[in-house]
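Deliverable D2.4 — example input (structure tokens):
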């Protein structure tokens, strides 16, 4: 009789392990995405209330502009500063699961000392569109965004009134403040829950950035923002990143079978004690 119990228990445990292996197949290794966005034409304002911004290069996905410049042109004895958004020319890419933050785009500031009569941008709107797809090209999520971006052009006369926290208070870096991208979200495919999240990463020339709250003054109150300090007379870049992690979720049937195997083990232990 003991042999029969042992055999039954072995078959039950073996079936549980087999079903477990089938239920927890390897997670998806990567997901495709498209990304687009840019500076919204006509949304910029300038320090002198005039239209000082020049737009250029249209993003194919959003229809907005990838470049804006301001200041006094070289032909007039000055120089210009500007912003550039970069991602794959067709907005295509892939994110590997479990590989940590991966760059999906960049935001660069060409920062130069401007003539006072040239004017500079102090506000512009940023559009964004991010689409995530499964390996069969089925859409998982579409995230459209319209964010505010404020800009502070220093006059390069120390002491500076808004230095990077803990940094050099005499470098008079310029400062951007923009709303944080949509946060993390979960989605389930098969036996795995995947967590997607956006982030930021400092690139070449960047003095630093902080996550903070800010009131743009449009009646919305304080919102979550990233504040970015960029050095004078050079190009500074901040990267937009995305990451995906996976964790397994046992199916109800698998849990029930494991529970049944535990019951069988308990019954066998009791019978063995009694014998």
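Example output (designed residues):
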């Amino acid at each position: 009789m003991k042999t029969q119990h042992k055999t039954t228990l072995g078959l039950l445990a073996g079936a549980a392990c087999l079903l477990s292996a089938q239920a927890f197949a390897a997670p998806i290794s990567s997901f495709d995405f498209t990304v687009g966005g840019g500076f919204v034409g006509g949304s910029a304002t300038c320090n002198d209330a005039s239209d000082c911004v020049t737009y250029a290069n249209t993003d194919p996905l959003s229809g907005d502009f990838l470049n804006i410049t301001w200041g006094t042109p070289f032909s007039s004895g000055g120089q210009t500063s500007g912003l550039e958004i970069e991602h794959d020319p067709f907005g295509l890419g892939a994110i590997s699961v479990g590989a940590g933050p991966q760059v999906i785009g960049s935001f660069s500031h060409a920062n130069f000392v401007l003539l006072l009569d040239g004017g500079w941008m102090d506000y512009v709107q940023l559009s964004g569109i991010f689409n995530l797809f499964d390996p069969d090209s089925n859409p998982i999520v579409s995230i459209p965004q319209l964010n505010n971006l404020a800009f502070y052009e220093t006059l390069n006369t120390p002491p500076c009134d808004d230095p990077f926290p803990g940094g050099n208070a005499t470098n008079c870096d310029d400062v951007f403040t923009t709303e944080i991208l949509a946060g993390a979200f979960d989605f389930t495919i098969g036996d795995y829950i995947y967590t997607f999240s956006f982030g930021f990463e400092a690139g070449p020339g960047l003095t630093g950035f902080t996550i903070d709250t800010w009131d743009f003054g449009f009646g919305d109150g304080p919102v979550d923002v990233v504040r970015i300090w960029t050095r004078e007379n050079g190009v500074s870049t901040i990267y937009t990143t995305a990451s995906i992690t996976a964790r397994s979720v046992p199916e109800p049937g698998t849990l029930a079978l494991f529970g049944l195997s535990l019951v069988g083990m308990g019954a066998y232990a009791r019978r063995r004690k009694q014998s």
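Residues 1-24, 254-258, 260-273 have pLDDT under 50 and may be disordered.
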